[in-house]
Design a protein that fits this description.
The protein has 13 helices and twelve strands. It has about 425 residues and is α/β, with parallel strands linked by helices. It has two domains: about 25-90, Alpha-Beta Plaits (2-Layer Sandwich); about 115-235 and about 255-425, Aminopeptidase. The strands form two sheets. The protein has an eight-stranded mixed sheet with strand order 5-6-8-7-9-12-10-11, sandwiched between helices. A four-stranded antiparallel sheet has the order 2-3-1-4, covered by helices on one side. A hairpin with a 7-residue loop joins strand 2 and strand 3. Helix 6 (about 190-200) packs across helix 13 (about 405-425). The termini are far apart. Bound molecules: N~2~-sulfamoyl-L-arginine and zinc ion. N~2~-sulfamoyl-L-arginine binds near residues 316 and 367.
Length: about 425
């Protein structure tokens, strides 16, 4: 009797996964004018649209739409004369299929290699944390595990410092890479953990160890990441509930609107129930405070900061709050191009080519309080947001098939290598 109850409850829980997304659809939208891009953004609050990738005049976007708004959304697109087509008819089905792909890949990799790692599949928070612990234990001469704080819900935020000189050689440039601030962007943490792998377990470019100190933080927002795995696949924000009176109904702050530069001045919302809520004040979130603290601590030596997001195949640089150019614009642009070229040399022909440029100009909307702007405002000369390649088009699942994770990790690492070396040449 008891066993049957457990079996039934487990089956119900499995089927219940992604239930929220029954009836939701995603659409590919392709605006052809800047007016259309702006008009699409204006629809966001009223139709509760969720842009998973940015629609620009040169690149289509993907937007999630709730069942109750689909008719109005299509009517609005028709009125605006924006081209569109359905991307996923049945989001829940696609997400179930993604889960199947992940499980299947885990099984195949385990059968082949004994275990599946953070850079060859989408992994749980626990698996990624365990990998960081393991690398720190295995390479005590070069790796230090740092646990600077607990997340809002009490999870340990972890990062690795990698250095052949224990961070004591002040002549070495510091490279800081983070990921997972937007929890649903699951391709981000694998690219960041792959950098750890290439600086410890598989060192093919020793100059990167000899000449640099590294700070690598794969998951800035562990609460959101866990929530995106266990409860809501499209969770983007933190999980804090102390930012406003509706905290328990609409938890979370958009970490990439929460940094202390031109905070809440563009592309943000004061409505805590939106995806772009900036928080009650700059750096209100412990997760962004951790990142800010790292930047400030290593500032004089930090020549390159990269924050990994998805989707869109873009390398974006400041200033994203208003589209103006910084004094380092030339260096930012040339190094951005150098990184993109290195990626293209290793990219698959069917992957989109990277676009490089000022954040607000490339994605055609300004957004304030982002990490790459904040780092640059503190004085990090080369500071970029990577929008990694991502959404599957004409594929069975919804997200990038996990079979492509190694490809994305390898090509992104090629970009990181070039970014690090160029940052040393220019600012080391
Ligand atoms: O909107 C964002 O936070 C980033 N795109 S995402 O789809 N990953 O959410 C882009 C941030 C661009 N940088 C600035 N606006 N400074
Ligand atoms: Zn993001």
């Amino acid at each position: 009797m008891k066993i049957w109850a457990i079996v039934l409850l487990t089956a119900a829980a499995v089927c219940a996964k992604h239930e929220k997304y029954i009836g939701w659809k995603s659409y590919i939208v392709q605006p052809s004018t800047l007016e259309q891009v702006k008009a699409l953004h204006l629809l966001e609050p009223t139709l509760e649209l969720d842009f998973l990738s940015h629609a620009t005049t040169s690149r289509e976007g993907v937007v999630l739409v709730k069942p109750e708004h689909q008719a109005d959304f299509i009517a609005a697109l028709a009125k605006l004369e924006v081209e569109y087509k359905v991307h996923a008819e049945n989001i829940k089905e696609k997400l179930d299929y993604d889960d199947f792909l992940i499980e299947r890949r885990n099984r195949e990799i385990r059968a082949r290699n004994g275990r599946s790692l953070p850079y060859d599949n989408y992994q749980t928070l626990e698996a990624i944390d365990a990998y960081l612990d393991e690398i720190a234990a295995k390479y005590p001469d070069t790796v230090t595990l740092v646990e600077p704080a607990k997340s809002f819900e009490g999870r340990t935020i972890k990062y690795l410092k990698i250095s052949t000189t224990n961070f004591e050689d002040d002549s070495k440039p510091v490279i800081f890479i983070d990921g997972g601030i937007h929890s649903r962007e699951w391709i981000s943490p694998p690219t960041v953990t792959y950098a750890i792998h290439k600086l410890t377990e598989d060192v093919t470019d020793p100059d990167l160890l000899d000449n640099f100190d590294w700070i690598i933080l794969p998951i800035v927002n562990p609460d959101g990441y866990k929530y995106s795995h266990d409860t809501d696949r499209f969770w983007r924000k933190t999980r804090s509930t102390d930012q406003h009176t509706l905290g328990f109904f609409c938890p979370g702050v958009d970490g990439n609107r929460n940094y202390d530069f031109a905070w809440n001045t563009a592309g943000t919302s004061n409505n805590p129930c939106t995806e772009i809520f900036a928080g009650s004040k700059p750096l209100s979130e412990i997760e962004t405070q951790v990142v800010a603290e790292i930047m400030k601590t290593y500032l004089p030596r930090m020549t390159l900061y990269l924050t990994m997001h998805s989707f869109g195949s873009m390398i974006l640089y400041p200033w994203g709050h208003d589209g103006s150019l910084s004094q380092q614009a030339l260096a930012l642009h040339t190094v951005g191009i150098n990184m993109a070229e290195a990626i293209h040399e290793r990219a698959l022909p069917n992957f989109p080519r990277y676009q490089v440029g000022n954040s607000a100009l490339v994605i055609q909307y300004a957004a304030a309080g982002a990490a790459e702007d904040y780092a640059h405002s503190l004085g990090v000369p080369l500071s970029y947001t990577y929008e990694l390649p991502g959404l599957s088009r004409d594929m069975w699942g919804f997200h990038l098939d996990p079979a492509y994770i190694p490809q994305v990790c390898e090509e992104t690492w090629a970009g990181i290598i070039v970014g690090a070396r160029r940052s040393r040449e220019l600012f080391g």
